[in-house]
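Late entry, 5'-O-[(L-methionyl)-sulphamoyl]adenosine complex.
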Amino acid sequence: MPTYVTTPIYYVNAMPHLGHAYTTIVADTYSRFRRLCGDAVRFQTGTDEHGEKIAEAAARAGEDPRVYVDRVAAAFRKTWPLLSVDPDYFIRTTDANHIQTVQDILQQVYDAGDIYFSEYSGLYCRGCERFLTEKELVDGKCPDHLVEPSPITEQNYFFRMSKYQDWLIDHIKTNPDFITPERYRNEVLSFLSDPLEDLCISRPTSRLTWGIPLPFDTDFVTYVWFDALINYLTGIGYPDGPDFNTCWAVAEHVIAKDILKPHAVYWPTMLRAMGLRPYQRLHVHGYWNVDATKMSKSLGNVVRPKELVDTFGVNTLRYFVLREMSFGLDASFSGDAIQARHNADLANDLGNLFSRSLAMIDRYTCGQVPEREAGTITPDDRALMSAFTATVIDYRESMDGFRFHKALQAVWEVIGLLNRYIVTNAPWEMAKNPRQADRLRTVLYFLAESLWKVAVLLRPVMPDAARKMAAALGMERQFRNITLDDLQRWGEVPPGTVIDKGAQLFPRVEKKVEISAAAPVKQPPAASAPAESTEGLISFDQFQAVDLRVAEIVAAEKVAKSKRLLKLTVRAPEERTVVAGIAEFYAPETLIGQRVLLVANLKPAKLMGIASQGMLLAAKEEQADGTERLVLATVAAPVAVGSRVA
Ligand code: MSP
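Prediction complete; structure with ligand written out below:
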């Protein structure tokens, strides 16, 4: 069976964070799982680039919306390979073919009489980009954005969503898999137990121009959700692309609970009005919180996936999020939790099993996978074989049902069994006794073949580590064409295969890791704080305590074995050494003679063994790919060296 897997298209008003990474890793893992089952898969992600939020973000950045969306969309596109995420198609709502498709659909639905013009008064939440009902408010505020929605009266175009309410209820009831897990299906049915209102699908150009013009009235642009949801069709060539029919029949959307209503109510009714069948399945997950607090820019606790990859590697990040979150429920991220999983599950359980087994094959059978010796198979081996049979079944069911944590639990049970298999069989003892040579070969054979099976099972979750395991087992070629069914056979690793015992999969991370989110979170001023609260501000005296001086760089060289550091000699006016983390941005020779700003009274610190007596000021600019560029602060006109900056 083919499948078509999608993520939400992400708003380009924020850089990619752990939440975006999670959904996208889930969709990628599921796609890889289905490919492992032998299925043809199309996997799509992308960016949502129109609407008020984006126009405002561009204005805040002082950029033309088009320049702004190009920059942030590029950051999303560049993030996915870092996470071993490999979509077949990346869609942007500013793509010309998408705009055309949205306009064609609007015209079609309008011509069919399901779009009409009317006046509307309602409570509008800018964060959600939709009108909220009184019932949805908590203490008069939007529960997601914690702001009071604004009352708006406007003439607009409406989609006759209410017309499809009964059909939708019936469809959800007769297709139990349509929305999963069940709690979200129930939530939608409960919402649909009240009369459904029609959906406002336009915004007047007097209020918003950054959107797709309605084809039948250019004084209006399309509401961002009507535009965005259609991406799922555009990406597969709707209406007449060669893959459209095959893909649409098997579409599976992955989203978080925040956008349940647009996906479970607006979208199926829109499809119905277009004369198309609904998607096949909607998979809804919970929210990642950070140290049990909601992740948000204003709290300064946003977790960036790149930072996690830099510290733990991509395999650990993927494993962690899939193992730690029960799909459908909320989960809490912390630096300690990912470090614990890395060291316990990956470095100890899996990594040690792998390196021990390969080391024994290297030592006892000259680095080649031995033959199973007839007559030496024990009940222990049979138990191992039947454990694998059960694990593969369990794994398939769990992965297919989006219960990734369960699938991984099953794999780790078999890893535990293998670690015990080594202890009970004690191959090092057999190696001392020539009469046990045949049994030793059988044990090592079972270990090699079991590791191969584990590598294959982990391929959807940790494609990179699994490939390394396969390569170390001399099975890289077979790895490309294997299917899950093949795992039910034994004897797949040919005796004589040469292994490479050198591979170290998961080096332990010992030192305590500070993920930026784990840094103390600045509390917003308490509601009762007086208006003139000075919390977070410093006094003039405190500022004066910093001795800032104009300094001239007189010598500069790279610090050996460091990519980041330069050793500088500066005059202010006395000479001193300063080590600065700017090697990636400045060639040493270009710095000689530059006048820069020095923090002259900083306590000396040793960096790579060099005592640094001060610090240079530099601006940190966030780049589209989430990295930072450093630019040294200087003075606008020549100033005497040693002058105070205040
Ligand atoms: N542009 C719309 C979606 C249109 S789809 C036709 C949108 N974009 S978004 O950038 O806000 O992304 C929302 C999605 O990002 C969530 O549904 C989820 O997939 C992911 N996440 C964002 N924050 C998250 C968490 N804290 N935890 C888990 N996932 C979350 O809505």
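The pocket of 5'-O-[(L-methionyl)-sulphamoyl]adenosine is lined by residues 8-11, 19-20, 22-23, 48, 228-229, 231, 255-256, 258-259, 287-288, 295 (CB under 6 Å). Will revisit in the morning.
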